[in-house]
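INFO batch 0412 | record 1 of 1 | parsing
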Amino acid sequence: MRSISFRKLPARHQLVAVIVAAGLAACGSSSDDGVQQLLPATGATLASCSDLAARIAQPNTVFSAITTAAAGTLTVGGVAVPEHCVIDGRMADRVSAVDGQSYAIGFQIRLPKTWNGRFFYQANGGIDGVIVPASGGSGGGGPLTSGLLQGFAVISSDAGHSNAQNPVFGIDPQARLDYGYQAVGKLTPMAKAVIQAAYGKGPDRSYLVGCSNGGRHALVAAARYADQYDGIVAGAPGFNLPKAAIANIYGAQRYAEVASNPADLSTGWTAAERTLVSRAVVARCDALDGATDGLVQDTTACQATFKLEADVPTCAGARDGTCLTAAQKSAIAAIFAGPKTKSGAPVYATFPFDGGHGGAGIPFWEFTASLVLDSGAVGFIFGSPPVAAAGFNGPAFSLGADIDAQVARINATSGIYTESGMSFMTPPNPSNLSALKARGAKLMVYHGVSDPIFSVDDTTAWYQSLMAANGGDASNFARFFRVPSMGHCSGGPAVEQFDMLTPLVAWVERAQAPDRVIASARGAGNAGGVNTELPSGWAANRTRPLCPFPTVARDNGTGDLEKSENFNSKGPDPADTKP
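INFO prediction complete | emitting tokens
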């Protein structure tokens, strides 16, 4: 950036030059690739919580409580959070003319006494409805990351409805829109104004972090609110959530066809049988990355190598956990291939075979959520018009749903429902993040390869489209990390504890691009809790690099396979795709 010589300017222009220079300093400078480089945040101190009420008044906002949280009142991963202020409140109180229910956007803001100059929006998972403590957690990847511990001012929210209203809040059109994207748009400027009033300066840098539906919120914000956020972490981003919900309903129907007990979908693919498939995948694909270590790093190569029909025994007699019946293979293959409409059009993405299908978190998403969560979400929230609440039966809805009809409903508008589920839930034109890129903001995305509810293949296809929209390479502002064998946001026989926030801040504010993120196993002695799904042969402190797509962690042949430093991130090897 060229310097400005004030002494060479006429006196009447010097003030203008000072203002221009200050603005340029706040924004940073442009790098060689034309991407703006943002400058680091600077902190401030909050003297007391006691006088905040008189200073933070905001339009259409009620602050119901302002309290001081003593040091240690809140802990994250066993670490005590220092003293801070807690602000509870709500925005946009209203009574719906449609369902007669009272609605508001509930929130909590936590302001550290020693502030690092940064704002952290903590995006919820699920279908929201709960104001979780604004600790600055990521919602996934283990308890290594806490924005509040690092000195961020943090907000969390219920996205405009209460848990008691789930999922029938979808009957109210505005509650749908708040849940989809408008709550983030309304809360962000309010929270920044509160921070300005509290510290005497607004946040220099703003970050939004979430996993699952929180990851969806993150990618929606990257598209809709690029001017508000400098850094975004999107974990397991269900950005096609309405489609994913229908895919899970389709899966429930296939499991019901092969379940030995129709009242229990898990009998369609038992724990022993899921472990059987996982082990078969690892046996076939483990060595494709150059290391036989119980992890399938080269996910892409594995899909061309593993064959369910050939690599898993077919039962000649009764099911006993050592084989799958022909009918089971047909059902599982159809689920992993993704549902199709009657005309053969894909409804959602494919799912990859991986080493984590036997994970403890799989049954809930596959066999329970499909009946009791996705049914209500598709019925009331995503579909237009919503189904009738009286007499609604979730399992009956899912098991009897016509897939084509539900696809039509999530793409439809009707009467007062002026935005379709696909419109208010998904990022508009997700491959075009040019506004985010141009202002120097950065995006980091991660996804467990064994995620059973939101497919890593969907995220991979999105990232490939983002690459294509940026001349084949989006890595100067967006990077995507696949986590082998990890389930939905965490868990599984995986190295699934990692910190995306710290490298994101370094990338946004110091131009340190994350060429790898180190992930660790949560074995015995881990302060943040133990992952009981770790294979017995792994070291409790095993580490691996998470590599930015399309690179893969490959053994460099220099030593201990339990240590990340003995792996390099390398591009796909065509030879690895050979069966």
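INFO post-check: The CA atoms of residues 237 and 459 lie 7 Å apart.
INFO record closed
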